[in-house]
Amino acid sequence: MSSIFESQFRASATKLTADLRHRSLIRKALKGYEKSRDEKKARFQDWEAARQAAAETKWEAINHLDKYLSEFADNLARRGTKVFWASTAEEARNYILNLAREKQAKTIIKSKTMTSEEIHLNEVLAKAGYEVVESDLGEFIVQLRDEAPYHLVFPAMHLTRNEISHLFHEKLGSPETDNPEELTMTVRRDMRIRYCKADIGISGANFAVAETGMIAITENEGNARLTTSLPKIHVALLGIEKVLPKLSDLALFLPMLATVGTGQQLTCYNSMIGGPRQPGETDGPEEFHVILLDNRRTHLLADAEQRDALHCIRCGACLNVCPIFRNVGGQTYGTTYQGPIGSVITPHLRGLRDWKHLSFASSLCGACTEACPVKIDLHHHLLQNRRNAVVLGTGKLDRIAFRGFAFLVNHPGVFGVAVKAGRLVQRLHRLIASSKIDPLRAWTASREAPVIAKESFRQYWKSRHK
Amino acid sequence: MTISLFIPCFIDQLFPSVGISVVRILEKLGHKVDFDESLVCCGQPAFNTGCWNEARDVAIRVVDGLKNAEVVVIPSGSCGAMIRVFYPEIFKGHPKQEAALSLAHKIYEFSEFLVDRLGVVDLGSRFPAKVTFHNGCHGLRELRLKQQPRQLLRQVKELTLVEMDDQTSCCGFGGTFAVKFPMISTAMGEAKCASALETGADFLVSNDSSCLMHLQGLLSRKKEKLKSIHLAEILASF
Ligand code: SF4
Predict the structure, then answer these.
(1) Hey, is the C-beta of A425 within 8 angstroms of any chain B C-beta?
(2) What value of ipTM does the predicted structure carry?
(3) Which residue range is the domain that position A72 belongs to?
(4) CA B218, CA A54: separation in Å to the nearest integer?
(5) Same domain, A136 and A261
């Protein structure tokens, strides 16, 4: 039985895989990325050693999450930050809703945060009557189009300049242009006013430093810095896996994230925030709230086999190299987190029964695992999810088929008969191959079927040893 | 030495000349080849589909059958990875765990065996053609075989090796994935074929017949002239 999510995935994948324009657009976009990523990787003395160090640091953090999270929270609280532990998406949403109500907020500005996508924050705030604006250019674009981000890092990578110009013309009344600077200026003019008006700024965090009680945000547009400093109230929403033990860990993680995330040595802006405005300081928000979100991350933590998936720094490198992602596109997944990491963790976050299909929709090529800077064993986790799905009692037909196959293989006499029958069937199959009634249509609709050889290897071996 | 050959079912039935080529090459190098006809499958299709118990039922026969082998050679990176990397997984805590581990240590993919174990790269082969090489992903990333097949190809007389764009990207076969998600598998294969065609090569070579079965299927459907061929078949041209 396939879930509704699987049906949607299949329908969208069928459409996008046949869309040659999409295929070449994504390929072209990623060619540029690959080139700069490799250049920046080459600046590391030893990239593999850096990956190993990063994996070990994250391993330490995730395996002592209790210790580092409370250190992080205590340090933040000491400087007057309100820390809220949210077990579920709903608790996190309610906290923000209550805060907005209490402060009589009208406008809320946001900088890019996938965690807020995860808890569907925008929908809830909009429904409650708040004006919510995404300040990241890519997020702003997909918000105007009323769609989900296409990619963890590049939310609007599926759109061409012309499409964006058209969108701005339609929604913001700006003149059509294919000049990227003019397009950015259009948004900037619009955005500056909104920053000044906003009552609350909501951000995510790329890292949470336990030792100093600081969040670190890395970005290229400066919008996160404005979002977190202009409004009177700043709320940072982050998953509990973001924690790093020490401030000096950033010396590795910031350049690493920039390298594989965007192909930069460092992003243009890197902010560290450790509290609200302190006495004697002239600027910064009056209140700083940090929401630490679990939302079933502890479910993943409890799975010793796949716990390393919590190492993820959401760099998007695994998406960029994934041939599935490149062909079906990010929105086809129907998840907050797309690509290989999404296929691995979504079953943990939202249930294996509904999301197992993502683990089967993979050729298991392993390009993701090779690309991941924190060495998450992504493609092997897909195999484990497949096994777990079967253990759960799904895929009964597969099991019956493979049980039959195991029987054949273990009974050479019967196997020989089956092989002979196969030859006969192949002759008949040619008559209907690739037609609508062909039971092998999943193969033959696009591919010629291989031909069974006149003499098998076994026959050759026998004849030579007579 | 005596080399036990493992010929997976699809090579046996669809691409027997791959197995025959391997036998000819190993014998030319002066080794004795041994073949157990009763071993037909490593269990990978079941394993990859999540049916680990069924995979083990098939694998037990392989582990038992190759118990006394000195070394085992398999002309497929994919089946090689199954035995070396994944048998230890599915036999965890099983009475045959030890035997599975010992098999994992003596199994070699064909090109790996020639280059890394025997130290042979020049077989005196001649193949007058322009070829491009596709790495099967399991061989490439589970067994770390990238250079070995290329080292062998470079020694073949009158052969020109041209690399294609995106040379390490997956062809889209992926076992049962190819029929569970044919649209994605096909799109990936089309991209691979396009890169291969761009090189202007006469042959698309791989050390995995399963990738080639998929790619050849696509090429034939489009009536392309580019022909697929297994590495062993080229090397056996002497
Ligand atoms: S799984 Fe690894 S490569 Fe993928 S987004 Fe996370 S850190 Fe990056």
Answers:
(1) no
(2) 0.96
(3) 50-295
(4) 41
(5) yes
